[in-house]
Amino acid sequence: MRRLFKASLITICLTPAFALAQERCPIEKAVFAEADGGTELAFRPVGSDAAAVSHMFTVTGAKLKLDGHVMYDEESQRPAGMIMNNCPEGDATGAELRACTVWTGVLYSVNRSEAGIDVLGAEGTPAPDAVLLPGFGPAIRHSELWDKSGLKSVPWDLYAFKGCNG
What we know:
Layout: H1 2-21, E1 30-33, E2 40-44, E3 55-61, E4 64-73, E5 78-84, H2 94-100, E6 101-106, E7 108-111, E8 116-119, E9 130-132, H3 136-141, H4 146-149, E10 158-164
Antiparallel strand pairs: 1-2, 1-10, 2-3, 3-4, 4-5, 5-6, 7-8, 7-9, 9-10
């Protein structure tokens, strides 16, 4: 029994170090998951250096499929994120965008190795341990989307690194 305990303890102690030692994919290929609502946050490449948008992503879970993007706000020096539901393509009025926007806020990266929280890194930087979207869960719960989402629990605001796409 004691030998099994020692082996288990060594495994538990080394697993976080091994996870941190693994090389991470760039953020634009990273997938993150949160445990409460069962939703995932998956980044994808923007595809143009000239784009005003620095990151693109989707949030999925149950019947939920939302599109999001990040634009760095020079004035506040923060990544301003928007998560939207079925927004019109092309030219849209401010009223149309407000009607389809589910959440706006700053996206933060959480890294255990650096013991801290920082603003989301630029495209090409390694994926963080987690991404924090403050107030996202309550925004979903209090939106018109909630009844149609199929979610059984309100999503948490913290998405832990899950893996990499392609």
